[in-house]
Amino acid sequence: MSAWLEPGRVLLLGGGNMGAAMAGGWLAAGLAPGRLVVVDPRAGAALRPVLDAGAVHLEAPGGEAADIVVLAVKPQVLDAALPALLPVLKESTLLISIAAGRTIASIEAVLGARPVVRAMPNTPALIGRGITGAFANGRVSDTARASAEALLSACGPMEWVGEEGGIDAVTAVSGSGPAYVFLMAEALAEAGAKAGLAPDLALRLARHTVAGAGELMIRSGEEPAQLRRNVTSPNGTTQAALDVLMAEGGLGPLLERAVAAAKARAEELSRN
After folding, report:
1. What are the angstrom distances between the C-alpha of 243 and each of 75, 143, 236, 238, 254?
2. Of 17, 183, 195, 252, which shows the fewest CB atoms inside 10 Å?
3. Which family does it belong to (predicted)?
């Protein structure tokens, strides 16, 4: 972990699966355990390795002021949880929120005008393979931005968007995206079983195919379209399948509609 983070006190509000995964990533990256305070009424199993490493667990915010506060509670309880943070906030405290659908304005309505980063990680962060999109408001300094980037990239790469509304599109693509991939693996396994494979074998083949193809995309650096062409022989079996998937109304248009629906719902949640 970069030296600029070491003098600060990081307070994590919410020790569920995602919060615990992020905290574990910070410690693995070199954050001193004594600098991390986790505020959660109940310390679940996911949080145990973090606490065993030396992080401080509190049931409610308290103690010295925090330099960075990460909001990792569920959106529906965020409003009730925010006021208790006021005694541990400084004017310069950086707030990082991963609460889905909660705007920066809604946070400032409770805590006042502050440097805030709104972020959307995804569930592969639980195994250190996530990706996060983030937006920083105008009060976030270059130093605070670097701090946010270090914390958010501890469980996988992160990308900045230029406007807060971009987080809704990030939510639709990568935030919800793992579910699309899981559905594809599920459907591929079911299709394999209908083609004559034993269901458990079809599922193993689908799982490893999806995981391996994803890893190949990351490691090769080639565009997905080129990787698709690399594995497609003219008039071969893959081409026969792609003729179905790439037909009018096929996978591309279907995913476009799915992402648009998810983005519209994210925008609706952000307005509420």
Report:
1. 42, 50, 11, 9, 15
2. 195
3. Belongs to the pyrroline-5-carboxylate reductase family.
Tokens 């996911």 locate to 46
Residue 224: partners with Cβ closer than 8 Å, 6 or more residues away:
217
Amino acid identity of 70?
V
What is the dihedral angle through the alpha carbons of 256, 257, 261, 264, rounded to the nearest 10 degrees? 60
For residue 48, the cross-strand partners are none
Task: Walk me through the domains of the chain, giving residue ranges and CATH numbers.
Answer: 3-167 (3.40.50.720), 177-271 (1.10.3730.10)
Q: What is the pTM of this model?
A: 0.91
The pair of structure tokens assigned to 210 is: 């999806």
Contact, 140 vs 108, CB < 8 A? Answer: no
Q: 146, 173 in Cβ contact below 8 A?
A: no
User: Helices (H), strands (E): how many in the chain?
Assistant: 11, 8
For the segment 115-174, what is each residue's pLDDT rounded down to a tens digit?
Answer: 999 999 999 999 999 999 999 999 999 999 999 999 999 999 999 999 999 999 999 999
Tokens (6 digits) for 237: 């079996």
**Rounded to whole angstroms, what are the CA distances from 203 to 134, 183, 198, 245?**
34, 12, 9, 20
The tens digit of pLDDT for each residue in 192-213 reads 999 999 999 999 999 999 999 9
E strand spans, 149-211: 158-160
DSSP letter at 65 equals P
